[in-house]
Amino acid sequence: MILPKYEKELQIAQLAVQRASILTKRVFHEKAKGTVDKNDKSPVTIGDFGAQALIIAALQHNFPDDAIVAEEESAKLKEDANLRSTIWDLVKDTKLDDPAAEALLGGPIKDIDAMVELIDRGNSPGGSQGRIWAIDPIDGTKGFLRGGQYAVCLALMIDGDVKVGALGCPNLPIDDSARLTTGIGENQTDEGHGVLFSAVQGHGATSRALATVNLDAEAGTPISMRAIDDLTKANFCESVEAGHSSHGDQAAISQKLGITEPSVRMDSQAKYGSIARGAGDIYLRLPVSATYQEKIWDHAAGDLIVRESGGHVTDIHGKRLDFSIGRTLAGNKGVVAAPLAVHGKVLEAVQEVLSAKL
Ligand SMILES: Nc1ncnc2c1ncn2[C@@H]1O[C@H](COP(=O)(O)O)[C@@H](O)[C@H]1OP(=O)(O)O
Ligand SMILES: [Mg+2]
Ligand SMILES: [Mg+2]
Ligand SMILES: [Mg+2]
């Protein structure tokens, strides 16, 4: 069977992520990033709100009937006029340099009220039916705040299955063969950094420079995971935040597999992109809390990009990630992403170490 190429969806997803990244990069290089605390105590910045508005505007213009599951909501903006206008100042000036590309995204948002409304278009409950986009406008906000890695993430699911994924990683090297890296300093330039990963189900994954707009959605360089014949030489990536993934369990698993190199810690779905292009090999997300449910926008794009690069992605029980349940991965616990050929071995080690908790 020839799988559909979703050319239009891929093109819009790439351009929308590229436009939103222009805004996040501006905020990243500013000293005060306009942090607000959310109810769950996780930080959100003016960059998260602005990027979400811009991405939803592009989707609304091109696919007005599609549902959208996005991380942020506008409640804080509605009660704070200053915050609202700070975000609007950023959003209204952010556009792609290429006028044809900008026109494809529908051009600028009309006014500040339209911006607030757009942010709330991301409130779909998700589910197993129809076309649903998942957006994380800034994934790894903590990394963003400390000058580390972060990602602008967008994926299209149809009937609960991820068909298209785009991940903008402004602080990863453009060069696919560069070593794993934790981030760039806030005072460094973007020179040589900024990569856009994308994938379409059944058609592989690619990377390209995030800052270069190309209307040809298929113009990227194909990427693939590294073939590892000796697991002891594998590179692990894990979260920087020990509260998001257990560093202790990770170390025990590395030891069990005979891996001596320390894990590279980086924030966000940049981990998925990094292993997909062979800069690293394995990404584990090891549950720290019995109650935390992973959010679909934290995994949808990365899951597809890794699988289209020759990887296998499951939870710690060996189940594929299930994006069809709602806004969270309620049916999964943790993540094990590795090249297909060694995934079974890695999963075995994960389960041995976690056996007391499973
Ligand atoms: N208690 C938690 N356990 C796992 N992940 C979490 C938790 N709290 C927030 N997250 C989310 O984990 C992701 C970051 O993971 P990592 O540490 O691997 O970079 C982010 O999406 C972050 O949300 P956010 O998008 O608000 O930053
Ligand atoms: Mg957040
Ligand atoms: Mg996130
Ligand atoms: Mg986020």
From TrEMBL:
Keyword entries, A-Z: Hydrolase, Magnesium, Metal-binding
Organism listed in the record: Trichoderma arundinaceum
Enzyme Commission no: 3.1.3.7
One Gene Ontology term of the molecular function aspect: 3'(2'),5'-bisphosphate nucleotidase activity
Protein name: 3'(2'),5'-bisphosphate nucleotidase
Gene3D superfamilies the record matches: 3.40.190.80, Fructose-1,6-Bisphosphatase, subunit A, domain 1
Function: Converts adenosine 3'-phosphate 5'-phosphosulfate (PAPS) to adenosine 5'-phosphosulfate (APS) and 3'(2')-phosphoadenosine 5'-phosphate (PAP) to AMP.
Binding residues for Mg(2+): E71, D136, I138, D139, D298
